[in-house]
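Sequence in, structure out. Go.
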Amino acid sequence: MLLSMSPKELNRGDVIRDISERRLRQKDAAELLKLSRRHIQRLVNQYRGQGPVELVSLRRGKPSNRRYPPEFKQHVIDIVRLFYIDFGSTFAKQSQEQRENTQERTRSKRNVSRAA
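Output:
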């Protein structure tokens, strides 16, 4: 079976394999991977049960839960094109906050306005 793993997942797989072969302690692996010992134990159990296929992220290819709805993005783009077409993204955000007297979603407005 062909697996597509990120470099982070490959490194994690090597460390978990070393734990299961008793070349590395879970405590040391937790420090190395910057995870809790409990999380390392969960990964080791998954690795022992199914092998490295269990270390691949199940979220790959799925949209983020924190994404903004397309209507919001389009609303921001429309406002930027209407009022702030020759402004930079940060200045457009600041000007819009002054105009609307709001401070919401600072980074998202700036990032979406760059697309405009």
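Check: The mean pLDDT is 79. The CA atoms of residues 101 and 116 lie 22 Å apart.
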